[in-house]
Write a structure and sequence with these properties.
- There is one protein chain.
- By secondary structure, the protein is an alpha/beta fold.
- The two termini are about 45 Å apart.
- Strand 9 and strand 10 form a beta hairpin.
- It contains twelve helices and 15 strands.
- An eight-stranded parallel beta sheet has the order 7-6-5-4-3-2-1-8. A five-stranded antiparallel beta sheet has the order 9-10-11-15-13.
Length: about 375
């Protein structure tokens, strides 16, 4: 869980025209301070990660990466110290190829040097992209870089991008190797700030989930990309849908927004303690899409506690409809794998007062267009009586 610059701030480097948005130490300090002051750190968002366009266009005389001197006048080590002193962890971006996607120096011939540099700088998280590199070299090259990270002795979360490049290049992805090499990996397309982009990604994950869901577990996660919540492209209902699906999929929760201008309704979604608890459930099981009908999907994830041998479940009803009214769905509990003989206690994650959604045989919901009804269903340990 954390904050990443890319989706909201991209590669804005003109600090004269856009002083509050350019990729700079001032931006990182300001967002880091807000993460602490506004409760995001307390909620679990502990990493702040600079994506592309932070570096100088040239390496230094020793072949080491260096920050842009105008936008990061105090250098990355000082910025990492500042972040650490706030109680946060610090992440950075690199690229396996000759150049980053934004045209800055890549790591292809400097893998060990860059791993050592980032460890010396106090980096806690490394995202390694794959622009300007050869597909056939990626699997071995990413593993080589993992070895160099481990060799430094500094714990660093390792985010890999080669599966996304393989998917679009027609190469098969070996998820067993991924799970032993990387802590998280981008599976598919970059998310853009729109409902259409979000739904393209969620549908792809649903269609392909059986290939990779079993490789998601504590220490290694499938990553559908950043949260759009609080930016320009999603409504409140659509933002709840993303939070619900990401929570069910046990996906990394990486915000990418301006925390200085976020509206209260979006902040409350990002800080929803029950959604976060489902996302961070210690079983680490990636939930799946288990139902598709009439442009409604149901996503389900087994979580703790287990009572009398029956899992608790997080269940998200998600609408892709646009017909202007809340659409009712009703299904039998057993159809959704809900088989506790004593029934379930229902908690509504985003509407706590709306829990009259279940009996001993059926479950139902009315879902707003492009919205969600997100439930936690806890098995009842014994038959309730009056």
């Amino acid at each position: 869980m954390g904050f990443m610059t890319w989706q909201r701030f991209r590669c804005i480097v003109d600090c004269k025209s856009y002083p509050d948005e350019c990729i700079s130490e001032n931006l990182i300090k300001r967002q880091a301070e807000l993460m602490v002051q506004d409760g995001y750190l307390d909620a679990g968002y502990e990493y702040i990660i600079i994506d592309d366009c932070w570096s100088s266009k040239e390496r230094d005389e020793n072949g080491r990466l260096q920050a842009d001197p105008e936008r990061f006048p105090n250098g990355i080590p000082a910025l990492a110290d500042y972040v650490h002193n706030l109680g946060l962890k610090f992440g950075i971006y690199g690229d396996y190829g000759t150049l980053t996607c934004g045209g800055y120096p890549g790591s292809i011939n400097y893998l060990e040097v860059d791993a050592e540099t980032w460890a010396e700088w106090g980096v806690d998280y490394v995202k390694l992209d794959g622009c300007y590199s050869e597909l056939e070299d990626m699997e071995a090259g990413y593993a080589e870089f993992a070895n160099y990270l481990n060799k430094t002795g500094r714990p660093m979360v390792y985010s890999c991008s080669w599966p996304a490049y393989f998917e679009f290049g027609g190469y098969p992805v070996n998820f067993e190797i991924l799970a032993t090499t990387c802590n998280l990996w981008r599976n598919w397309a970059d998310i853009q700030d729109s409902w259409s982009s979000l739904t393209t990604i969620t549908k792809w994950f649903g269609d392909n989930q059986d290939r990779f869901s079993k490789f998601s577990a504590p220490g290694h996660w499938n990553d559908p990309d950043m949260l759009l919540i609080g930016n320009y492209g999603l409504t409140e209902d659509q933002s709840k849908s993303q939070m619900a699906i990401w929570s069910v999929m046990a996906a990394p929760l990486l915000m990418s927004l301006d925390l200085n201008t976020v509206k209260p309704e979006f902040k409350s979604i990002l800080l929803n303690k029950d959604a976060i608890a489902i996302n961070q459930d210690s079983l680490g099981i990636m939930g799946k899409r288990i139902y598709q009908k009439n442009d409604i999907e149901i996503w389900s994830k087994p979580i703790l506690p287990i009572i009398n041998g029956y899992y608790t479940y997080a269940v998200a009803f998600v609408s892709y409809r646009d017909d202007g009214h809340a659409y009712r769905v009703e299904e039998k509990l057993e159809t959704l794998g809900l088989t506790s003989p004593n029934g379930y206690l229902v908690e509504n994650i985003f509407e706590p007062n709306n829990v009259d959604l279940i009996d001993f045989e059926n479950i139902w919901a009315r879902i707003n267009p492009s919205g969600t009804v997100f439930l936690r269903l806890t098995p009842i340990g014994s038959v309730l009586s009056n």
